[in-house]
TrEMBL record:
GO BP: rRNA processing
Similarity comment text for this entry: Belongs to the metallo-beta-lactamase superfamily. RNA-metabolizing metallo-beta-lactamase-like family. Bacterial RNase J subfamily.
Keywords for the protein's UniProt record, in alphabetical order: Calcium, Cytoplasm, Endonuclease, Exonuclease, Hydrolase, Metal-binding, Nuclease, RNA-binding, rRNA processing, Zinc
Name listed for the protein in its UniProt record: Ribonuclease J
Length: 612
């Protein structure tokens, strides 16, 4: 894209954005004047004001916004911001596998584009400490260990815990930042701005670029009575809006919900009522491990009712340990006890905080519901609170756990029975507030499925953002702006990398297809030994079935299948077929046709021929 700046404008831009060689990259700076040039100042109605037409407006050094995750999906947030020979990354998260990804542990972004442009990479900036924003970092830093990472104090503390598990701690550069601090990323600068979310120390970002100011909200809501920390820094967002914001990238998770998201303190009030209701019983509360605000309110109620608090679930133990160590959780001495000690107390003296609010099969609460937890047995003396709403797709898992807990005699409070959960994401009125005070020229909805992005687009149009200035993108799209125009100009490699055990990326579409095939129809292995020199079958074919039929109850079917394979194999030998793959293919095709005719099933068939 052409750059029509005058020489004087070029000198001005160079002085403002270009650091001395090797000196300023990644070094915190004092905030300078971050206003856009005069042609980007905005009228109160949010429309861009210009003394000249856009045709004559001054075009600047192009900036690219490249989402490699987090669009048209929930999780796996990963966005590249690129300008000239510099780029940086916002967040590096993971997603959890869907029902089609059999055996897969987690899903991370495709790092191919970053790898091809590694010499440009100046750092990774993190908005907050949730898994969908930091969970991919260990895999990223294994490939690119020299890249510095920037985050707030709690976020860095949680990242350290993840890197320790992957034996990376000490070999990577972790940098702690504070709200209103600015760091240089080559010709760009990133300013951190406090926001409210369901985890402390969350930030949005103002990205100061040669083309103008970009704002990325991160995950946010507006909470005027937060449990910990300050209120979202609306004055700074408004200040940037008054000076001129080129583009806003804003959280779309709750774009379908009207009104405002309730304050976390509302949960505390309801928990207090439920603690009173549970008098004489043991209280078990399942919530998200990272929701430190919720855990703090549970601890406060436990202290007020004279109960001890135990913790179950590895992620819950890790997060609470980090929260206490860094001062984000305040626990009086003697309140927190080891789970091994709960047998020493009466049920009414215990609160057990656990993972499993989403019904995850291996979580602590799921194991309790199936009586498989080694240290906790559910009885009618248990009052169980599931302090979270099911993530879309997890409803059946949560329902199964609730049913199983109730069958064991426990009283269970779940979903919206007593409003024991509030979201950490902005609803429509808060989204309108963010759009109205930042007054962006362009708007890019982020963090959500396609329906969420489209609904956020409609909300933006109600506050005066022109439809042609709203970009609905997908992962891999290259969004480019020169300060005057913004449009999608191309695509880069993007997608899902599957992590299965220690394997990263070695499970692909073909492996998943085979797993799905095995899961749906089972497997038949046909084994035969032959002497090709005389054209004889020495043994077999023998059939082994797994997940198809129980052989002892289907002897007639299996005997007919053996006869068919014997005939097929002998025909191949009589015809002097020498290509093993051709012989196996013939056996597979004939057996497959026979099985389908008799059962209407299509199991995977694996012929094995041994030659003597």
């Amino acid at each position: 894209m052409a750059n029509n700046n005058s020489n004087s404008e070029k000198r001005k831009t160079s002085k403002r954005y270009t650091p001395k060689q090797g000196k300023l990259r990644g070094v915190p700076l004092k905030r300078k004047n971050d206003g856009a040039s005069s042609q980007n100042k905005l009228h109160p109605n949010g429309r861009a004001a210009s003394q000249r037409s856009s045709k004559d407006a001054q075009r600047r050094t192009p900036v690219k916004i490249i989402p490699l995750g987090g669009l048209n999906e929930i999780g796996k947030n990963f966005t590249v911001i690129e300008c000239s020979n510099d780029m940086f990354i916002i967040d590096c998260g993971l997603a959890f596998p869907d029902s089609e990804m059999l055996g897969v542990d987690i899903v991370i972004p495709d790092f191919t584009y970053v790898e091809k442009n590694l010499e440009k990479l100046r750092g990774v900036v993190i908005t907050h400490g949730h898994e969908d924003h930091i969970g991919g970092l260990p895999y990223f830093l294994k490939k690119f260990p020299s890249v510095p990472v920037y985050g707030t104090r709690l976020t860095i503390g949680l990242i350290e815990g993840k890197l320790r598990e992957h034996e990376l701690l000490g070999s990577v550069k972790l940098n702690t930042v504070t709200p209103r601090q600015t760091i240089r990323m080559g010709c760009m600068a990133v300013e951190f701005i406090r926001v409210n979310h369901s985890i402390p120390d969350s930030v949005g970002m103002a990205i100061h670029t040669p083309a103008g100011v970009l704002i990325h909200t991160g995950d946010f809501k507006v909470d005027y009575t937060p449990i910990e920390g300050g209120i979202i820094d609306l004055p700074r967002f408004a200040e940037l809006g008054n000076k001129g914001v080129l583009a806003l990238m804003s959280d779309s998770t709750n774009s379908e919900r009207p009104g405002y998201t309730a304050s976390e303190r509302k949960v505390g009030d309801n928990l207090e009522m439920l603690f009173a209701k549970a008098e004489g019983k043991r209280i078990i509360i399942a919530t998200f491990a990272s929701n430190i605000h919720r855990v703090q309110q549970i601890i406060n109620n436990a202290v007020n009712t004279g109960r001890k608090v135990a913790v179950s679930g590895r992620s819950m133990v890790n997060v609470i340990s980090v929260g206490i160590e860094l001062g984000y959780l305040k626990v009086p001495d003697g309140v927190l006890i080891d789970i091994d000690m709960i047998g020493r107390y009466l049920p009414e003296q215990i609160v057990l905080v656990t993972t499993g609010s989403q019904g995850e099969p291996m979580s602590a609460l799921s194991r309790m519901s199936m009586n498989e937890h080694r240290k906790v047995s559910i009885t009618p003396q248990d009052f169980i609170i599931i302090s979270a709403n099911p993530i879309p797709g997890n409803e059946k898992l949560v329902t199964r756990v609730v049913n199983d807990l109730m069958k064991l005699g426990a009283e269970v409070v779940y979903e919206k029975m007593y409003e024991v959960h509030v979201s950490g994401h902005a609803c429509q009125e808060e989204q309108k507030l963010m759009l109205s005070i930042t007054k962006p020229k362009f708007f890019i909805p982020v963090h959500g499925e396609f329906k969420h992005l489209m609904k956020h687009k409609q909300t933006a149009m109600t506050v005066g953002i022109p439809e042609e200035n709203i970009i609905i993108a997908g992962i891999g799209d290259v969004i480019e702006t020169d300060g005057v125009d913004m449009r999608i100009t191309g695509e880069v490699p993007a997608g899902k990398v599957l992590v299965d055990g220690l394997g990263v990326g070695d499970v692909g579409a073909i492996v998943l297809r085979d797993r799905k095939h095995l899961a749906e129809d089972g497997l038949i292995i046909a084994v035969a030994t032959i002497d090709r020199s005389v054209g004889e079958i020495l043994s077999g074919p023998d059939l082994v079935s797994r997940g198809f039929v129980y052989v002892r109850e289907s002897e007639e079917l299996m005997n007919e299948a053996k006869e068919l394979l014997t005939e097929t194999l002998q025909t191949c030998l009589d015809n002097n077929m020498h290509e093993w793959n051709a012989i196996k293919g013939k056996m597979k095709d004939n057996l497959s046709d026979f099985i389908f005719r008799r059962t209407k099933r299509s199991p995977m068939i694996l012929p094995i021929i041994m030659e003597i």
